[in-house]
Design a protein that fits this description.
little secondary structure, extended
Length: about 70
């Protein structure tokens, strides 16, 4: 199935490349530092979508009402 390829690594922590300059796609190898890549920042007034935390991650309790 396209988009479901496996990539073997001996790293404990991995990140996907966003700058497009990595030598080990699809993983980040730190090349972004050399090319000066900076991810665009969200607008300062942007609020996280409902059901997410401040980083935009899904809340494990989405849809549940808070306990009183």
């Amino acid at each position: 199935m396209p988009g479901r390829e496996e990539t073997a690594t001996d790293r404990r922590v991995v990140a996907l490349c966003r700058c497009g300059k990595t030598g080990i796609p699809p993983l980040c190898d730190g090349s972004h530092r050399a090319v000066g890549f900076r991810a665009p920042a969200p607008p300062p007034s942007a609020e996280p979508p409902p059901g997410t935390d401040e980083r935009g991650s899904q809340s494990p309790r989405t849809g549940l009402t808070p306990e009183a």
